[in-house]
Amino acid sequence: MPLRALARVNLAAIERNVARLERELHGTSALCAVVKADGYGHGAVPSARAAIAGGASWLAVATAAEAAQLRAGGIETSILVMGALSREELRVALAARADVVAWSEPFVGELAVAARDGAGILKGGEDRVRVHVKLDTGMGRLGTRELDEALGVATRVLEASPALELTGAMTHFATADENDAFVREQLERFGPFAAEMRTLQPGIIVHAANSAATLCVAASHLDMVRCGIAIYGCDPLHEDPSLRGLEPALELTSYLAAVKRAAPGDSAGYGRRFVAERETWLGTLPIGYGDGLRRDLTNNCDVLVGGVRYPLVGTVSMDNITIDLGPAPDVRTGELATIIGRSNAERQTVEELADRLETINYEVLCGISARVPRVYHHDGEPL
Ligand SMILES: *Cc1c(COP(=O)(O)O)cnc(C)c1O
């Protein structure tokens, strides 16, 4: 019997997506798998393991707690925490033996204090805090825009050696999914910083590319690429992922919990936002916005049953949706219903849902709520 709402994740697809991205890289560029936000909704620890099996040699997350979660899951690979860290969060990140990002001298001061107080924080024989310095080349978010300030931060890190270790230089692209020209502009701003950083500390890891840049701008690969969305088989340029040889790893399903007749004038759901105009059959699926199916999908989405697309009709409620099965449906109560994924020859991608919601695939995936169980398999074989 199917579950009311279920996310099935094919870890073999994540492995193949990582291997496919690796083939894009020149010989010495490493792949860092970004598993923030619970692995873009796929589950951080299983996704990280699959990415490592596919060839990833680094992991990146946004928060300290996410790094701690990976360590608690038994993962030993190098982790970069990319986000800003409060003093408390910094301690959590360091206890998780994560590399951290700095862009201001006061923060380097805090790092030095944390390293000095290291007993009880740093574990596993680690006595150094590893630091990547971030230059803001155009994203306008984290990092300093000033080359001199960034180099000053790096110098402070070197002065605090051996407690601190300068391990990386990074930036982040603002438009890799839409505008090649600005990516190149950002790369040009990054170049002199990267060169100076390599002089300050030979052997550091210089990194910039996200999934879109990895796929579209080979010059951005440098020493490492940070790929998130593409490892899950979703398209960073919001197109059909199969066009770039990516394989979606996640399927979201429910089932037909009730099938009933509707006469002309009968309505479905809150606010009667669907009223039958003809004799038809309605199917009810016990999945709703409480599971992450956004309410904007009201009268604005399809559901696949037995390889056939049926329109979602009426309001998406917290726990249920309804679909219009038409006047003579060939379906049974209890039948599997697919919201994201394949059903026989038919398929609905995350990108399609994102289009309907006027958002991006990232947000749809991250929105699948904790109420939805994640079940893992390897090309259909249970783990
Ligand atoms: C999320 C994130 C990435 C990964 O981006 P994708 O588009 O998912 O590949 C890379 N770098 C930074 C700094 C990020 O925040």
Biggest sheet details: 8 strands, parallel
CATH level 1 class label of the largest domain:
Alpha Beta
Q: Beta-strand percentage?
A: 25-35%
Rg is: 24 Å
Q: Give the proportion of residues in helices.
A: 25-40%
- Bound small-molecule species: pyridoxal-5'-phosphate
* Distance separating the two termini: 19 Å
Principal-axis shape equals elongated
CATH homologous group name of the largest domain: Alanine racemase
Instruction: Give the strand order of the largest sheet, numbering strands 1, 2, ... along the chain.
Output: 8-7-6-5-4-3-2-9
Low-confidence segments: none
Oligomer category: single chain
Mean of all residue-level pLDDT scores = 95
Whole-number total of structural domains: 2
Question: In words, what does this structure look like?
Answer:
With 383 residues, the chain is α/β, with parallel strands linked by helices. It has two domains: 11-233, Alanine racemase (TIM Barrel); 250-348, Lyase, Ornithine Decarboxylase, Chain A, domain 1 (Beta Barrel). The protein contains eleven helices and 21 strands. The strands form four sheets. The chain has an eight-stranded parallel β-sheet. A six-stranded mixed β-sheet has the order 19-18-10-1-20-21. A hairpin with a 7-residue loop joins strand 16 and strand 17 (321-326). Helix 4 (64-72) runs parallel beside helix 5, helix 6 runs parallel beside helix 7 (147-159) and helix 7 packs parallel to helix 8. The longest helix is centred in the middle third of the chain and has 21 residues, at 180-200. The protein is elongated, with a radius of gyration of 24 Å. The chain starts with 5 loop residues before the first strand and ends with a strand. 48% of the residues are buried. Bound molecules: pyridoxal-5'-phosphate. Pyridoxal-5'-phosphate is lined by residues 34, 36, 82, 172, 210-212, 226-230, 236. Pyridoxal-5'-phosphate (PLP) binds at residues 34, 36, 82, 172, 210-212, 226-230, 236.
